[in-house]
Amino acid sequence: MTTDTNNRIMQRFITFINSASETLAIELISQDALFYVPGQPDPMQGPAGYLSIIAMMRSGFPDIKWTLEDMVSEGDKIAARFTMRGTHQGNFFGVPATGKLIQAQAINFYHLSDGRFVKEYGQPDMLAIMAQIGAVPSR
């Protein structure tokens, strides 16, 4: 796959994660795709699995938005750095809503096949998020 193709796919993916569109999930994510999430012993699978990841984030931060900051692609692999921003308006990992704004980085690695996502290793900065909502001491 070319860099231009990967850029186009990633722009659609950003639209997907910021909208939680089921239509885009089905278009972009293979039914057999695996998504490795910190804190989860088993990977999430397929479009429904990725929608569950987004729903978990939106349960604590209903207005969460991901901004793609950097991306490197080679063949069928993409490395991406995102900034996540949102307002803590719901329970998140046992922490009740605080109304605090969060901003944290995530570095994710993706594998594509035939223009669809088949694997993701997600690494959001959970310590930064938890510190910003008061769940752990800040620096």
How would you characterize the overall build of this protein?
- The protein has four helices and six strands.
- It starts with a helix and ends in a 7-residue tail after the last helix.
- A six-stranded mixed sheet has the order 2-1-6-5-4-3.
- The protein has helices at residues 3-19, 22-28, 46-60, 126-132, and strands spanning 29-36, 44-45, 65-74, 77-87, 101-113, 116-124.
- Strand 3 and strand 4 (77-87) form a beta hairpin.
- The protein has 139 residues and is α+β, with helices and mostly antiparallel strands.
Topology:
Layout: H1 3-19, H2 22-28, E1 29-36, E2 44-45, H3 46-60, E3 65-74, E4 77-87, E5 101-113, E6 116-124, H4 126-132
Parallel strand pairs: 1-6
Antiparallel strand pairs: 1-2, 3-4, 4-5, 5-6
Largest sheet: 6 strands, mixed
Number of strands: 6
What is the ordering of alpha helices and beta strands?
Answer: HHEEHEEEEH
User: In one word, what is the shape?
Assistant: globular
Residues in β-strands, percent: 35-45%
Q: What Rg is obtained from the alpha carbons, in whole angstroms?
A: 15 Å
Helix content, binned percent: 25-40%
Strand order of the largest sheet: 2-1-6-5-4-3
Low-confidence stretches: none
The chain-level structural class is alpha+beta
Query: What is the count of DSSP helices, taking H or I runs of 4+ residues?
Result: 4
End-to-end Cα distance: 42 Å
- Let me know the average pLDDT: 95
Structure characteristics:
single chain; 139 residues; alpha+beta; 6-stranded mixed β-sheet; 6 strands; 33% helix; globular
